[in-house]
Design brief:
InterPro entries: SERF-like_N, SERF1/2-like. The chain is α+β, with helices and mostly antiparallel strands. It has a domain of 51 residues. Helix content is 49%, strand content 18%. The chain is built from 2 helices and 2 strands. It has a two-stranded antiparallel sheet with strand order 1-2. A hairpin with a 2-residue loop joins strand 1 and strand 2. It starts with 5 loop residues before the first helix and ends with a strand.
Length: 80
């Protein structure tokens, strides 16, 4: 059984969909090194917030709580 022109129609549709998307990367005016620095700073701020939240005893956000049990440690995952 032949597929007729279904394959051709599907190719045309796929090309039309792909034509709507731009292949250019986001242009935010930053060099790759500046982007890395920005991302590293954001990650450090996020880690500092999480550490402060964990140190403050606020378990509303969930996380991992380390419980000492005998000679070994057991990780207990707390959920919100």
């Amino acid at each position: 059984m032949s597929r007729g022109n279904q394959r051709d129609r599907d190719r045309e549709r796929a090309q039309a969909r792909a034509g709507n998307k731009s292949k250019q990367p986001k242009s935010d005016g930053l060099t790759p090194e500046q982007r890395r620095e920005r991302d590293a700073k954001a990650l450090q701020e996020k880690m500092a917030r999480k550490a402060a939240q964990f140190a403050g005893g606020n378990k509303a956000g969930g996380g991992i709580e380390v419980v000492k049990f005998g000679f070994s440690t057991i990780d207990v995952i707390t959920c919100p």
